[in-house]
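Supplementary notes for students who missed Thursday's class. We covered one full example, reproduced here. Read the sequence, then the structure, then the short commentary at the end.
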Amino acid sequence: MKIIIFGIGFGSFLVSIAYFLGIFDVTHLCIKPLHLGVVLGGMIFGLGFVFPFFRKDKMSFQDWLCQTRVILKSTSSKL
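Structure (token representation):
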């Protein structure tokens, strides 16, 4: 998540520097209208990633986090 936020911020910084130096014209940027299908599709896509963690016949999300922490602790102690 930190990498994504850093990438967005760094890109914005580069665009603003290019604008102030006259390399880039801001009129080329436009914000397109928001469509309901994009929002619903994003929600379905996100639920598809989250749903397997909460199924009864599989590992719960909390169990997965605990197992991941144990694996990370055991690998970091070997370093």
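Commentary. Residues 2-41+52-78 form one domain. DSSP finds three helices and no strands in the chain. If anything here is unclear, bring it to office hours.
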